[in-house]
Amino acid sequence: MTCADVADLLDRFVDAELPAPMLLAVARHAGGCPACDTAARELTGVRDLVGGTVQDDAERLDLSRVWPAVARAADRTDARRAWVRRMRLAPVWGVGLAAASALFWLRTTPEPVRVAERPPRRNQAVIERIDSASPLELRRERKDGTVLIMVSAPGQP
Amino acid sequence: MSPRLATAVAVCMVVGVAAAAHGLEVQITTVRVVDHGHSDAQLDALRPRLRRLVGYRSFQVVREERRQCAWQTAEAFKIPGGRVLHVVPKGMREQAVAMQVKLLDRRRPLVDTDFRLQNRGVLLFAVDRDVRGAQPLIIMLRAEE
Minimum mean pLDDT among A108-117, B17-26, B127-136: which range? Predict the structure, then answer.
């Protein structure tokens, strides 16, 4: 392994992201190469410095407002999901409302005005055939439909 | 045929025969009409109708007969003044009674008619005053199945 190879792998060596044989190979090379060893130590120092800075920043970070904000966001998400669930049921609600409105409309629609029907006449008679040698007269009473067959007795002047 | 079915058929036949035998109740009421005088109370309901039809004011029952008539069988009802009303109930059609009626004056036919009368309805025959001076008569025929 050359210094150029180590330079390419140094970041991942410092972060211990290399496979074990590569880690060992870089460490052996750095152990015999003062330039690569220095480069590795500097990079490790930078990493520790950055890590320490980030940790300090994290420790100084005020999270007191974060969790309420997260809770509010979660509430908003829950509410949105609830609306989504309701919207999924919208067709069912629509059909139900349509049925209810149709029922209401049918029940409240006034019945069409009916023309008063004449009640059936009680004495309705239908003369199908009538024969008489005497003078004959048929009369029908208007109110009940009663039929009168009036015949003249024989010898009547 | 199973016993139950045979029993049902027999019951239906008995009921049918009984219904056919029951036939029709025919009521013949002969009414004398006069210009003046009292009217019989039993005619109160019919009186306005009779007045409108024949123009007389007073109505008195002369004879009344009620008889159970078998279908397709002639029945003779005597009418005062030597007249006879022959009634033949033919059957029921659309809630109406089909009948044939002949009114005879002694042996001379006055009227011969076929008609359908609403069940429990009334058909009237009126015979005018004749040369013998007999009062006009109204013959009321009421039929009820």
Answer: A108-117
Residue B100 confidence (pLDDT): 96
The shortest CB-CB distance from A150 to any of B115, B117, B128 is to B128
Contact B124 A126 (CB under 8 A): no
Give ipTM to 2 decimals: 0.82
Whether residues A70 and A54 share a domain: the answer is no
Residue A9 shares a structural domain with residue A55: yes
The reply to whether A115 falls in a domain is no
In this structure, chain B runs to a length of: 145
| pTM given for the model | 0.54
Cβ contact, residue pair A148, B124, below 8 Å: yes
- Residue B122 has its nearest CB partner, among A123, A127, A132, at A123
Whether residue A113 lies inside any domain: the answer is: no
* Beta carbons of B131 and A147 less than 8 Å apart: no
Name the DSSP letter for residue A30: H
The Cα–Cα gap between A125 and A145 comes to 8
Ranges assigned E (strand) in chain B: 24-34, 58-69, 75-79, 83-93, 96-105, 108-118, 122-127, 137-144
Whole-Å CA distances, A132 to A9, A14, A96, B31, B79: 137, 137, 72, 22, 18
Report pLDDT digits (tens) over B92-111. Answer: 988 899 999 999 988 889 99
pLDDT digits (tens, 9 = 90+) for B54-97: 888 899 999 999 999 999 999 999 999 889 999 999 999 888 99
Q: B126 vs A126: CB contact, 8 Å cut-off?
A: no
Site from B122, B139, B141 to mutate, A interface, most A CB atoms within 10 angstroms: B122
Total domain count, chain A = 3
The three-class DSSP label of residue A152 is coil
B118, B126, B134 ranked by CB distance to A124: nearest? B118
